[in-house]
Write a structure and sequence with these properties.
The protein is α/β, with parallel strands linked by helices and 339 residues long. Helix content is 41%, strand content 18%. The chain has 11 helices and 14 strands. The structure holds nicotinamide-adenine-dinucleotide and uridine-5'-diphosphate-4-deoxy-4-fluoro-alpha-D-galactose (UFG).
Length: 339
């Protein structure tokens, strides 16, 4: 009997890559997504890559009646919860939407899960919960803080999940703290497709390479780092996706709450990333060093050893593979999923 998993936000960037891995591992996959930041085409591509079918509901997680219907129509055993909003700048100008989607949406989901006696959940948390870390690499026990409403929404949901696990036996919850997911499926069929001007580094570089943007603005050249630019832990999205299957396996045999970093353990600077992308695409990437972006930290990378110990998972892909796969996706789909 195959295991039935509900993936909220499964049409999105990380969700679509995770659905591929779930189908390949013979899970039955049900996706709920309101398509506010994604395309239905992504799931068609996912089915093509994995050679399996996804049961898709165009539904908002805040709509508990629709969500209840999804749970009632499918004998869901566990949930991977990606649905939410993720643009830090937008969260500052529109905090209500962030608390409504990320916090209230998650509470609705948890209520329906409990009502339907489903108590296994993998939640997308973020390295943003570490705020400006006092040192690197960052371990799970480091103090948490938030500098913007997006980050605070992740902190609040982390706390809600901890309270829930303390309140009642039977919950099996993984809080996975992602570092910086990049890259795309090696087929070049699915990848990150930001709407409007990309906020994140790699999609921006890829759009410069394809000619959609003139140059990259490098936010700050005076950080106390190897070359003055920001340093992050970039992780291939397929490695990240596999981390979710490892978490589901873990929760299959362990009750309670798990909190784990998903990163590579290596820091890469903005300029090192530019150089790696140039190698991958064979073009030079124009850039200008400009002022720091408010709220950015100088450096942040993971200590990934806890995930290795408890989940038997570790990132495999190199920086060059991340860039090669991102470039394949970008060059095969210059306008993303808009055909
Ligand atoms: P994404 O925007 O590509 O995917 C999120 C998906 O959720 C989208 O398909 C969107 O349409 C859907 N969605 C949003 N609100 C919804 C709602 N109310 N009801 C139903 N569907 C809804 O983002 P992603 O990069 O795949 O991120 C997935 C999760 O991982 C998010 O929770 C994000 O905060 C978290 N995360 C992302 C990163 C990153 O850098 N990409 C880093 C750390 C954590
Ligand atoms: N950067 C540039 N130019 C750009 C975009 C980014 O120089 O056009 C720099 C940033 O200043 C930073 C690095 O590239 O030094 C990475 O920036 P990203 O925006 O790609 O990633 P962040 O680490 O700032 O943020 C990401 C997610 C957040 C999440 C955080 C921690 O976007 O949602 O990782 O997980 F909270």
């Amino acid at each position: 009997m195959s295991h039935k998993v509900l993936v909220t936000g499964g049409a999105g960037y990380i969700g679509s890559h995770t659905v591929v891995e779930l189908l390949k591992a013979n899970f039955e996959v049900i996706v709920v997504d309101n398509l506010c930041n994604s395309s239905r085409v992504a799931l068609t591509r996912v089915e093509g890559i994995a050679g399996g079918l996804v049961r898709f509901y165009e539904c908002d997680i805040r709509n508990s009646n629709q969500l209840l219907k999804v749970f009632r129509e499918n004998k869901i055993e566990s949930v991977i919860h990606f649905a939410g909003l993720k643009a830090v700048g937008e969260s500052v100008t529109d905090p209500i939407s962030y608390y409504e989607n990320n916090v209230a949406g998650t509470v609705q989901l948890l209520k329906v899960m409990r009502q339907c006696d489903v108590r296994t959940l993998v939640f997308s948390s973020s390295a943003t919960v570490y705020g400006d870390p006092a040192s690197v690499p960052v371990c799970e026990g480091f103090p948490r803080s938030a500098t913007n409403p997006y980050g605070r929404s992740k902190l609040i949901v982390e706390d809600i999940l901890e309270d829930l696990c303390n309140s009642e036996a039977g919950w099996r919850v993984a809080r996975l703290r992602y570092f910086n997911p990049v890259g795309a499926h090696a087929s070049g069929e699915i990848g990150e497709d930001p709407r409007g001007i990309p906020n994140n580094l790699l999609p921006y570089i890829a759009q410069v390479a394809i000619g959609r943007r003139e140059y990259l603005s490098v936010f700050g050249g005076d950080y106390p780092t190897i070359d003055g630019t920001g340093v992050r832990d970039f992780i291939h999205v397929v490695d990240l996706a596999k981390g979710h299957l490892a978490a589901l396996n873990y929760l299959g045999v362990n009750e309670g709450l798990l909190t784990a970093n998903l990163g590579t353990g290596s820091g890469v600077s903005v300029l090192q990333m530019v150089a790696a992308f140039e190698r991958a695409c064979g073009k030079s990437i124009s850039y200008k060093v400009v002022d720091r972006r408010p709220g950015d930290v100088a450096q942040c990378w993971a200590d990934p050893s806890y995930a290795k110990t408890v989940l038997a998972w570790e990132a495999q892909c190199s920086l060059d593979e991340m860039c090669a796969d991102a470039w394949r996706w970008q060059s095969k789909n210059p306008n993303g999923f808009v055909i």
